[in-house]
Amino acid sequence: MKIETFKYDNRIVRAFAIATIVWGVVGMLVGLLAAVQLFFPDANLNFQFITFGRIRPLHTNAVIFAFVGNGMFMGIYYSLQRLCKARMFSDWLSWFNFWGWQSIIVAAAVTLPLGYTTSKEYAELEWPIDIAIAVVWVAFSINLFGTIVKRREKHMYVAIWFYIATAITIAVLHITNSMEMPWSALKSYSMYAGVQDALVQWWYGHNAVAFFLTTPYLGLMYYFLPKAANRPVFSYRLSIIHFWALVFLYIWAGPHHLLYSALPDWAQSLGMVFSLMLIAPSWGGMLNGLLTLRGAWDRVRQDPMLKFMVVAITAYGMSTLEGPLLSIKTVNSLSHYTDWTVAHVHVGAMGWNGFLTFSMLYYLFPRLYRTNLWSTKLANYHFWIGLMGMMFYCIPIYVAGVTEGLMWKQFNKEGFLQYPNFLETIVQVVPMFKLRAVGGTLYLVGTFLMVYNLYKTAKAGTFEPDTEAQAAPLEKAVATHGKPSWHRVLEGKPLFFTVLATVAILVGGLVEIVPMFLIQQNVPTIASVHPYTPLEVLGRDIYIREGCLGCHSQMIRPFRSETERYGEYSKAGEFVYDHPFLWGSERKGPDLAREGGKYPDAWHFNHMDDPRATSPGSIMPRYSWLLTQKMETDTLPARLNALRKIGVPYPAGFENGPAQKDLQAQSEKIVANLKQGSITAEPDREIIALIAYMQRLGTDIKSAPPTAAK
Amino acid sequence: MLYNIIHSILREAGSINGYGLFSFLLFFGFFLGVLVWAFALKKNYLNHMGELPLDGGEKNSTDKIKSEKL
Fold first, then answer.
1. 8 A C-beta contact, residue A306 and residue A293
2. Separation between Cα atoms, residue A652 and residue A506, nearest integer Å
3. How far A490 CA sits from the closest chain B CA (Å)?
4. 3-state SS string over chain B?
């Protein structure tokens, strides 16, 4: 049998490894800045580009797509070549993938602080960047499938299945959720509105966690854990069940982000039931990982890489148990909108993704540089400091979350809310926010130790740009193991396998999303709900730009504790003109769904100028620039035109003249109102538009009782 | 015709009982199929698959490189 000699590309692996480290540090630093602002709001130095609302998405995007994204590519480019016994399909595509991805990250780091955001969580990047993401993802997918096709190993190991599922699903999710109507070079409106937008967004949001943060990393676990432990995975059979059950189930679980919202009940229940079933495959995967180490636990004591991996797999198990529990409607009624969710995702991000990434880096650097790790001691310090950091981050935030949930729901003996002022509940948890920042700092310090250790390792060794390898070509290498089974035939045919995996992931999405769009009764219309006025449209766009939904929800759930505090619960029909929906997922401040008419215009003006002047102890940043910056009226026709194209019934020609007049009249009315509060303001300032929007919120059904159109 | 049938089935989706049951059975059937499939696989095939990551085909093995100094 002829043996072929070929070379694995290590340069691309090293490039992604360095990018992982650099963006990891950046993402964590931005997270720390955001964390500090939650107890020291002036930490933004009254600089609009680094306010909490704008850097929160920067932090989440940096950690998910830059840190974990590069980590994922690093691990895939290393393991795929070795599992396929082939160099990557195209070096050009590899580098296009690398530089394209880094450009997207830089574009995100520039546009998000500037306020260019779609406001849809983990999909905040605007339309030109969305297109770039799709192009780079296609390049990566071609390279992935091309390598699989030219492989010298007949069988596709389970890790490759996870990579395939990742490639297909992320493409489907990203394209479906990014359907938007541009109105300028950098701004757009979501094609979907209200409830439908919410369902598509959380179908995406949940599965971004599933197929960006979980499936590729599970593939990496199935490769790097056996490598590090130097033994095969505990049960290959279990890994097959893990894969198929996980990819089939995950896609259904999205609606658990919208429990007790205006989403139809059937969709909420489906989300809950499928989330609960997810425990089974997730724990199957966790146990498969941990049991791989049976008989090798002595090595865990010595090898920091294995230590990181054990904690990562345990964190995966913990967060995949907690996730389904949080999806139970009664638990969710307490946890939703609180910091409990923040703690939950950080167990996943810091524990599962972070520690698995550190583990891979400790594995790869010595091998890429053909030397031993510079200091095991330092790596052990990193492990313990990182673990302490995680604990100091998560435990206080769990306490904060439960405290918030309980305080929001507490009634006194007379039947009134015990804490009617929202501020009381947030002041109570500020000490926890401080402890959380300590935890984040520790985690970051640990990361710096790793950076130094890996730098010294690289200095001590010699980089091997290509690793020479040998294998027999595919046709000659077919090994027979009795009569080929159906599964063996299947995973020997990557295209057929891909089609089956695509069907498995699409079923759940279609079953949930199609009825939402086809059945009118899912979104009953309300006759008194009208499109936003031109001034309110501008105000809403400012609300989106500033990232207000990072702290304020616009969705009152049907609980007495919420209707007492905020007013009538939210109805699906109220959001039919909301492109995009702005329900939010966090409450660091009160819900704003019925904010309209609660306070006079002057209160909003003063509150935006200095929140602590009207609400002592508030942790909201100042928005004084809104008082001086002029609103952008020249783009109004483009905005209204775009909204009309996606279904908002503005009359034809409204944007050419009538809209400007309408805007002027409403602005002047607000200026007159402010004058009554002894405030002199120019009618063309951004604050006027924002006040108009705030005063509109929730008033459509306040003014008239809701009546179903049909 | 077909559209009307699908439409009327979907209209029933408002009642979670039928819809939820259908979804659950769909998954359960799929899951059973995967179980049967996985348990029908031959032992020597599974062993071969499990060993795949351990043989990277490198001429100059990196297996001796340590993340720990002993």
1. yes
2. 39
3. 11
4. CHHHHHHHHHHHHHCHHHHHHHHHHHHHHHHHHHHHHHHHCCHHHHHHHHHHHHCCCECCCCCCCCCCCC
| Whether residue A710 has pLDDT greater than 50 | no
CA R_g for chain A: 26
Residue numbers in A near B56 (CB within 8 A):
82, 85, 469
- Cis omega (within 30 of 0) for bond into A484: no
**CA dihedral defined by A94, A99, A100, A106, rounded to 10 degrees?**
150
Alpha carbon of A520: minimum distance to chain B alpha carbons (Å): 9
Do the chains contact at B67 and A269, CB–CB below 8 Å?
Answer: no
3-state secondary structure A40-97: CHHHHCCCHHHCHHHHHHHHHHHHHHHHHHHHHHHHHHHHHHHHHCCCCCCHHHHHHH
Q: How far are the Cα atoms of A305, A526, A540, A572 from residue A575, in angstroms, in the given order?
A: 49, 10, 13, 6
The Cα–Cα gap between A278 and A377 comes to 38
* Contact across the interface for A269 and B16, Cβ inside 8 Å: yes
Cβ-based neighbours of A185, under 8 Å, separated by 6 or more = A128
ipTM of the complex: 0.76
Residues 6+ apart with CB under 8 A from A242: A218, A281, A284, A285, A288
Tell me whether residues B53 and A470 touch, CB distance under 8 A: no
Task: Give this prediction's pTM.
Answer: 0.92
Q: How many Å apart are CA A84 and CA A549, to the nearest integer?
A: 45
Rounded Cα distance between A29 and A539, Å, is 31
Candidates B10, B45, B66; nearest CB to A519 = B10
Residue in chain A closest to B9 (alpha carbons) equals A515
DSSP tag of A417? B
Partnered with residue A685 across adjacent β-strands are A630
Partner-chain contact B13 A519, CB within 8 Å: yes
Q: Which residue from A226, A294, A215 is spatially nearest to A504, judged by alpha carbons?
A: A215
pLDDT tens-digit profile of A620-649?
A: 999 999 999 999 999 999 999 999 999 999
Mean pLDDT of A687-695: 97
What whole-number distance in Å separates Cα of residue A276 and Cα of residue A328? 8
Contact A21, A455 (CB under 8 A): no
Instruction: Report how far residue A299's alpha carbon sits from residue A293's, in angstroms, rounded to the nearest whole number.
Output: 9
Q: How many CA atoms lie within 13 A of A628 on its CB side?
A: 6
pLDDT digits 0-9 by tens, A114-152: 999 999 999 999 999 999 999 999 999 999 999 999 999
- H/E stretch holding A190 reads strand A188-190
